[in-house]
Design goal:
The structure is a homodimer of 326-residue chains.
Chain A (H helix, E strand, L loop, with lengths): L15 E4 L1 H9 L5 H14 L3 E6 L19 H8 L7 E7 L5 H4 L10 E6 L4 H13 L3 E6 L7 H12 L5 E6 L6 H17 L3 E6 L6 H10 L4 E4 L13 H7 L8 H16 L8 H8 L5 H8 L5 H12 L1
Parallel strand pairs in A: 1-2, 1-8, 2-3, 3-4, 4-5, 5-6, 6-7, 7-8
Helix pairs in contact in A: 2-10, 7-8, 11-12, 11-13
């Protein structure tokens, strides 16, 4: 494993924070945020000193009905510009595009015509050739690119190694270590971060971490990941995100020592807008069913359904989950 | 730092779980649990295979009014016997005694007349001579003893080192690494666990970990602590405990591979009894104010008061906390 990077007093200028509240949080409310929420989040992110703000997905309008989701599932150029204008700020704007769920050849315009800075390409290991085409395409359009290789805890180690090798040969800028199921333990994150960083550094790329909170480990895994070489961290306001949610941005702003970061604007945003989002009925965060799917290294869909239906027969769910993997 | 102990597939028979639900959870409801709650928790702990159950405090009836607290703040011998009879089970029974807040010479009877197995002595570094007298006294009465050195994150390192040296020369059986303020990060826990273990092993003693969840790190810090040599772990059902609460017992039962442990009885207990406790109005668990006191290495009392008063001016609290430490 690589040597520990950084300490608890100084700061590493290579560390960047990415606010994924709209994108991962949009999975909770089908991307129906008020414009005020998005505008205030944008202003808040500028004030906090966060480096990146992810606006949502570039999802295919052929595959998804625009009447069934809020506009941040599609992130039209005009939608973003309504919030940010020309974005004459230091905050970079990112969107996510899922392999197989976007029409990137039509929907992603050249970077010099767009207010978007960064395209984040989300892929499973079985989609790597398609992911590489997307990376190449977006890179040639002039974008910074990241690749988020998902669900690695449920992939064969040799497949992850091969995927890593492939993206290291691509023009991608940042390779993300993603714990889709919230099932990794800190000791695994340290080993994976060291592996990703070793490969990425040799190829002149950076490594990011995107952690879920199914086992209340999102913050721990994020800070362990950066202590072992990762430099891009995804987080969301109060952890808003699908199921158990994500690493909390306010914890990252509190933990990191970069003097550019300000916690107070995030606290004020949370007090008003996260409270309103919860009052609207959006539900996310650690809960016992997520602990089970996380610990069993399973997609959280059974836990999400269980909670949505208001069930509390935890042992029944646990027995069902055990039965399915046996 | 000592080498990592254990892995994610096998199990270490030296690891013991202690259920601190009544003792730490009692700080939430002034120890007013129903007898049914306690009886069911006892039966549940037997079924799960947990090794220790802490019943509460042996608090001084001269210092604390018995009419203002439930009986588990005092843990009379008869109160425990009403629940466990002669306790002809493998589950060991523990109580905690705070240095300076108990009348141990009168209230702790010889071990062979008591159903209690283990006395846990909680102390601050500035009380060490009194703690050593209590350890000696309880040891001579025939009890297994542990010492919980509290608030070490706010103590001088040389004081912690000296306290460690002193307890290593005492007859105490287990030395606890305690994160009273929930302010330690995993990298600090690893270093402290290694330090405690080095000292304890040389003296033929064991090390335990007792973590709080102010920064959502109680589970992470507990498993990092045991991976780096600790073997006694405190946890509570659904993390019930003062303020942000504790490490969740259900997570420990899920994480550890000891075939004696059963998760299902804990899930059934939580479904009924933890839900009832919450319905009664008991409040605990991670919340933004606790993140602030944890990150600032402060006692959580300001956060507890803020939440109790229903306040949400998070930035106001944060500025107050910053002002107090400046």
């Amino acid at each position: 494993m690589s040597a520990k990077k950084g300490d608890l007093i100084s700061y590493r200028p290579d560390i960047k924070l990415l606010d994924a509240t709209i994108r991962d949080g949009g999975l909770v409310n089908d991307f129906y945020f008020s414009d005020e929420f998005i505008k205030e989040l944008y202003q808040t992110n500028i004030k906090t000193g966060i480096e990146y703000m992810e606006f949502g997905y570039k999802a295919s309008k052929k595959l998804f009905d625009v009447n069934k989701f809020g506009k941040w599932k599609f992130c039209d150029e005009e939608s973003i510009r309504e919030i940010v204008g020309e974005n004459n700020t230091d905050l970079k704007i990112a969107v996510m595009a899922d392999v197989g769920r976007c029409d990137y050849k039509e929907d992603i315009i050249p970077s010099n015509e767009s207010v978007i800075d960064t395209i984040r390409i989300a892929t499973y290991t079985h989609q790597m050739p398609a992911a590489l085409e997307m990376i190449e395409h977006c890179h040639n359009l002039g974008y910074e690119t990241t690749v988020n290789i998902m669900a690695i805890s449920a992939s064969r180690e040799e497949d992850v190694d091969k995927a890593l090798e492939m993206v290291c040969e691509s023009p991608v800028d940042v390779i993300y270590l993603v714990d889709s199921y919230g099932s990794l333990y800190p000791e695994q994150v340290r080993e994976l971060a060291a592996k990703y960083c070793k490969a990425a550094e040799a190829a002149g790329k950076k490594v990011g971490v995107h952690m879920h909170n199914n086992q209340q480990l999102a913050f721990a895994n994020t800070i362990e990941g950066i202590s072992h070489g990762a430099s891009f961290c995804d987080a969301t306001m109060s952890g808003m995100g699908r199921g158990a949610g994500n690493c909390f941005m306010e914890q990252m702003l509190s933990f990191l020592r970069n003097p550019n970061y300000q916690l107070s604007p995030a606290l004020e945003f949370i007090q008003k807008y996260i409270a309103e989002e919860k009052a609207k009925g959006s539900v996310w965060g650690y809960d016992l069913p997520y602990m089970m799917t996380g610990a069993l290294n399973r997609h959280p869909r059974a836990a999400i359904a269980f909670i949505k239906e208001g069930k509390t027969d935890y042992n029944g769910l646990y027995q069902d989950l055990l039965y399915e993997i046996s």
